[in-house]
Amino acid sequence: MMREEIVFGPIHSRRLGSSLGINLLPEKGKICNFDCIYCECGWNKDGRGDTKLPDAEHLRSSLEKKLKECSSKGIGIDSITFSGDGEPTLNPDFPEIIDITLELRDRYYPAAKVSVLSNATRAGRPEIFKALRKVDNPILKLDAPTDELVKKINQPQGEYHVADVVESLRLFKGEFTLQTMFLRSKDFDSSSPEVLDGWLEIVKDLRPREVMVYTLDRATPAEGLEKFTVEEMEELTKPLRECGIKVQVRG
């Protein structure tokens, strides 16, 4: 499901409420350093027709126009959310864009949160880390506890090491939300001990302020994927609640 505008919505998010989306990637393409088997935007190879990225000034004009419009119509916004067609931190203007977004949020919707959905691959870069620390909700992904398992579900496009991502997440000192997809495929099962046990240990070590666990909700590029029930996910994440970690489960 490609986003065809730099600012879209607001739409109802099962995790964030009334969410105004921001896509920092091509309007009619996809750029990501993951190629997740469950991505609602499809495979990377199918989104290469457009590679033009919006710059900071394009974002400013588009976002201000949308916020003015929503405000004049009395439309509620709970979150201004960076998601879109791929990994938002790949946009070279990302740090500047975060500053602009916070400025406009404060002017038009001061009660709204600013959220960034990221795969955390670039979270350890100083300029990206600094920008992510400014937002209300840095929502950072970790779907599996080992490089081998990440290859099966996220298919990184380049060098990737779970250990490096964990060290980057450690810099946040718990001030972030960890996001994890639970699903089953022919060679990956979030509930299997090889996935679940290592993931639980990493989460307990990092102690994020919240863990968002969710499952399939839309069509996926890979075939044969199976979703989990809310009851299954509640039971699988019970050890986290038992040690005081807040867990949000969405089916």
Folded structure, characterized:
The protein is α/β, with parallel strands linked by helices and 251 residues long. It has 8 helices and 10 strands. It has helices at residues 56-72, 94-108, 126-134, 147-153, 162-170, 193-206, 230-236, 238-242, and strands at residues 7-13, 17-22, 79-82, 113-118, 137-141, 177-181, 183-184, 210-214, 226-227, 247-250. It has an 8-stranded mixed β-sheet. Strands 7-9 form a two-stranded antiparallel ribbon. Strand 4, helix 3 (126-134) and strand 5 (137-141) form a beta-alpha-beta unit. Helix 1 (56-72) runs parallel beside helix 2 (94-108) and helix 2 packs parallel to helix 3 (126-134). The model has no long low-confidence stretch (mean pLDDT 93).
Task: Give the SSE layout.
Blueprint: E1 7-13, E2 17-22, H1 56-72, E3 79-82, H2 94-108, E4 113-118, H3 126-134, E5 137-141, H4 147-153, H5 162-170, E6 177-181, E7 183-184, H6 193-206, E8 210-214, E9 226-227, H7 230-236, H8 238-242, E10 247-250
Parallel strand pairs: 2-3, 3-4, 4-5, 5-6, 6-8, 8-10
Antiparallel strand pairs: 1-2, 7-9
Helix pairs in contact: 1-2, 2-3
Question: Overall mean pLDDT score?
Answer: 93
Q: Tell me the strand percentage band.
A: 15-25%
Order of helices and strands: EEHEHEHEHHEEHEEHHE
Q: Report the oligomer.
A: single chain
Number of helices: 8
Largest sheet: 8 strands, mixed
Separation, N- and C-terminal Cα atoms: 19 Å
Structural class: alpha/beta
Gross morphology: globular
User: Percent range for helical residues?
Assistant: 25-40%
Sheet with the most strands: spatial strand order: 1-2-3-4-5-6-8-10
Radius of gyration: 18 Å
Unreliable residue stretches = none
Q: How many beta strands in the DSSP annotation?
A: 10
